[in-house]
Amino acid sequence: MEKQLKILKYRDLSKLIEKFRSQGFPVLAPVRKGKVVEIEQVQSLDEIALDVLLSTQSAKKAAFPKVEKVLEYTLEKSGTKQFPVDPADYKETILFGVRPCDASGFKSLDAIFGEEPKDQFYLEKKGKSTIISFSCPVADEYCFCTSVGGGPGNTAGSDLQFTGISKDEILVEILTEKGEKLAAIFADLLTDAGKDIDKTKFLADVKVVFDVDGVVEKTTASFNNTALWFEQSLRCIGCGACAFVCPTCACFDFQDEQNTKKGVRLRLWDSCGFSLFTLHTSGHNPREVQSQRWRQRIMHKFAYMPEQLHVVGCEGCGRCSRACPVDMNIKEHLTAIGEKVIV
Amino acid sequence: MEQQNIYQPYLMEIEKITEEAPMVKTFRLKFKNEEEGNNFSFHTGQFGEYSVFGEGEVTFCVASPHTRKGYIECTFREAGRVTSELASLNEGDTIGFRGPYGNIFPIDDWKGKSLLFIAGGIALPPMRSVIWSCLDKRDQFKDITILYGAKSVADLVYKEELAEWKERPDVKLVTTVDPGGENPDWKGEVGFVPTILDRMTPISENTIAIVCGPPVMIKFTFPILEKYGFADEQVYTTLENRMKCGLGKCGRCNVGKVFVCKDGPVFTRTQLKELPDEY
After folding, report:
1. For chain A, what is the mean pLDDT?
2. CB contact, 8 Å: B59 with chain A?
3. Is A259 touching B (CB cutoff 8 A)?
């Protein structure tokens, strides 16, 4: 659909949340929790941390939660009975105040979970989420969205995008039919915007630091460059924090939990950075050392996903670098691959 | 609208348990829901995720041939958490099964050819499915030769079937045990699989070789096949890697860009040579 431009007053934002709540929509938004900012369900605007650059966790948990039940069963003498978990059992949800890199991060997850056979647990939740992203007026040294095809005002993946254009006013871009449907709920708070509003002047300046096509090409050809992966992963302690905060990481594990009568099968986030991730029962491990695991992380995002799913598995949000306890910086690693590697 | 839960297993009843070797058992599994059983089909080479409810899932090939309907079989060694629990179950107990997953051995393309099966240890089960699938259509193939080796006489699995194959005039079976693994009654060969294969001087012309075994056996078997003129396209194997979903999503079984679960587990040696060294 053709995008529509509207103006919303800042002072009406709280009314907006009230309207969503009174219609019964759960609203997920960034919330301060001590030193971290989580994406959580909120009741009112004052709970929402709209001033933070990025939430600590990405928004992926709205459709791909850290822990999720995929099966329930009872354990009986007469034999086990299982109860399917109905993936259709989810509510229409609003994801509010996330960043453009969060919204576009769902591209990767859509590709992985949407590929046959389709994962309805993800697709149902994603399908029932309407995403209102806030463009970025500021960025920090970890941000590199513009180097991977995104940007501080990128609208890909968003249903609505809000951009502050003055002290009082927000430019509202209505981008999808889902967004249009949601905007109808607060139509009385919107006025028409002129066609000539140039939102770029209200956005952060994020410099392009590498050519993504070059990085993809060089990564794809570098599997056997052992020295490269060794050097890049020397500091890596395999803690997996990077995967847990990443908006595009989708690797998962299953674990059963039970008491004497019943149990559940849970799907949990996992990480290719963990040494146990690929360990065979025999003791053999195809990715035995950390450099192989780091190679997997980079190659999955910058070689395998572009080739097979036609999407680069990185949004340039820099969360992995901010979360890394040993100060690895993916922006620098990718720049090095782009510049130094001779294919 | 009811949506499909791709992680929901079929419920299976353990119909029969066979002790194959120390720590190795075969389960014959029957669908508890008859309709699900009637609608189920698979092809030789495919695998599944077997669940012990409360413990988790484990990945094995289907060890029975696709030419025999109404049940599936799996053979496993008690080794980790789920297999240990599996081994403690009795006939009549219920487990879960998700599948079939992965690609297949293209046995229809092998019509009119001779087949040379080479298996080591606990890798006979995936091959047993192919062997029976081919034996059930015996007239479609020329010579069928099976070379099977294990550490010791006790470790040989499917002893009854080995005896049956030995008796059949249309199958040439060679069994071997590692040096030191023989006993006074042993009438088979003594020596590692590649050594025995070399001694057999296999004929590569119009022959397909299917190789399944521990990595070290495969490593030394391939050069022998090469020595006797087997081209890479004539050699098949099946890979295994740790898996959770079996559907190309959970992210752990890939070898480079190839997912063992959906692009494999069956590979020709040509395909194998294109894979990076990550398995």
Report:
1. 94
2. no
3. no
